[in-house]
Amino acid sequence: xxxxxxxxxxxxxxxxxxxxxxxxxxxxxxxxxxxxxxxxxxxxxxxxxxxxxxxxxxxxxxxxxxxxxxxxxxxxxxxxxxxxxxxxxxxxxxxxxxxxxxxxxxxxxxxxxxxx
Amino acid sequence: xxxxxxxxxxxxxxxxxxxxxxxxxxxxxxxxxxxxxxxxxxxxxxxxxxxxxxxxxxxxxxxxxxxxxxxxxxxxxxxxxxxxxxxxxxxxxxxxxxxxxxxxxxxxxxxxxxxx
Amino acid sequence: xxxxxxxxxxxxxxxxxxxxxxxxxxxxxxxxxxxxxxxxxxxxxxxxxxxxxxxxxxxxxxxxxxxxxxxxxxxxxxxxxxxxxxxxxxxxxxxxxxxxxxxxxxxxxxxxxxxx
Amino acid sequence: xxxxxxxxxxxxxxxxxxxxxxxxxxxxxxxxxxxxxxxxxxxxxxxxxxxxxxxxxxxxxxxxxxxxxxxxxxxxxxxxxxxxxxxxxxxxxxxxxxxxxxxxxxxxxxxxxxxx
Amino acid sequence: xxxxxxxxxxxxxxxxxxxxxxxxxxxxxxxxxxxxxxxxxxxxxxxxxxxxxxxxxxxxxxxxxxxxxxxxxxxxxxxxxxxxxxxxxxxxxxxxxxxxxxxxxxxxxxxxxxxx
Amino acid sequence: xxxxxxxxxxxxxxxxxxxxxxxxxxxxxxxxxxxxxxxxxxxxxxxxxxxxxxxxxxxxxxxxxxxxxxxxxxxxxxxxxxxxxxxxxxxxxxxxxxxxxxxxxxxxxxxxxxxx
Lengths: 116, 116, 116, 116, 116, 116
Fold this sequence. Notes:
Six copies of one chain form a homohexamer. The first copy, chain A, is built from six helices and no strands. By secondary structure, chain A is mainly α. Chains in contact: A-B, A-C, A-D, A-E, A-F, B-C, B-D, B-E, B-F, C-D, C-E, C-F, D-E, D-F, E-F. The interface between A and D is medium-sized, with 32 and 32 residues.
């Protein structure tokens, strides 16, 4: 199983488990999370770049993977993505480098999967 | 080996290794760590909830697992735990979601282990 | 004007300004923020302690002040509060000390105000 | 002196002081900082939004003010800015709220200054 | 009153207030804090540099001021200090710049005070 | 394959991949990263200790491993390393403990590898 498939399978399974708790706070946060990234004054594409750079400087690999996947789905180019990586490494420092290594590996995995 | 057993085995082995360094600072921190979570003005149970929410917003999976295990041992209910998760996700943001996925998986693993 | 009055005046004024943006995401977050700290499986009092310790390890002075005020309103005792400070300083490290200095100053200001 | 003028005066004075140290690492970081936010695969405008959201989730008021000023200079609208605030509060949590209060105050100060 | 005097006066007053709580956890942390920075396998001087860089990447202005003062007392040179600043800005990112501005201002204030 | 070999192989492979993006910001950051840790007013050895403690309080396992390896190469003793661990755990809090477990495991792996 590719790392992309594995990531999505675990993510989906556990999100269901979390929502099954019926905790109101978490349900609402998931709901806001969904609507926030939709087209508004800023297009969904820009919002995913914003979600990505925020995830990178906060150094959450799973959040990075999620937003990279959304960027991929919305047609972000490699050059655009690398510039987001650049800003994340600049603002967040070299502490972001290891996360950038895993981020680009996931980006490559998304392309590899498509070509299978 | 279940993730619970694996977590505890590694934790115990490496804690012994760390204490074997005889570094005074670390020894004292381990000592304070032990006494702080005992019954005081606040009951141990509430203190473990506090340790858990702190670990969640700081996003340390191993610390989360440790405190979840202590919560389990002290009879915290699932509903109570989910409310701690809710506060952690609210204060700490969606960046806490991936840690919540792994947290609830560990909580379920603790219950599964008991039923073996 | 006491630091308590000043804190609340600025907080209230700017919260109104923020909500006047009518940004859906922020409106919903403010709404969840309100409901989350109400009585549930855990009493409101415990939830405020959780919000406080989370704010302390994330080192946000204004969030600390807000939750300290709520703790005060809900009858949390000084001994209970100090134990929350203890856990925050233990989990979050000595980097939390300066925030603890300002936290206890605010706690004392709340009591001083009452006695005016 | 308005908060905008004060912010820029201090920032400029101390940046000069820092560069006068002739520390090579810092000089290079300042240099990269300058070139990174220029038009590339992504326009400068989008890059400033990225710098802003990164500063917000990392909760650095001065960095937020700097990027808000750049956003203002590049014609970002209030609705666009509020959506960046929304994403920052969602990803970073309610711990970002106090920084959002000061951010919007600075945004308003920029407009007020123009109208003087 | 210079910013150095003001910093130390508030710090001392509130540390006394905190210790007056007699909270065991906090008392012990203050105690470990004192002994850790003394000469050991590493000299006190190097340990203060370590405390400083840790405070910078965690972005705590008061902690930075405290360690800068200790560095000053132990004869750290400006060139050495600037190299610590360099590493902090590199590892921690440009988000550390505003803290570096205030750090060098405090370093200069320490020298100015001496020359009074 | 030992964890040391595995760590270095992945690190090297992905660093090459990252530099192949030819993103100017990232290239420059990698370049500054290389020059910053060389002998200057502070010896390279002290700088690696600084890089290590910064990585520990920011809790980045890969960064910790990298700097531990450099410390090992530059002849840092175990007692010196443990004192860095002590400061990191003190300043950063018990949240650093799990990273200390993995850090000392890597330090031991470096020694084991040498003796093979």
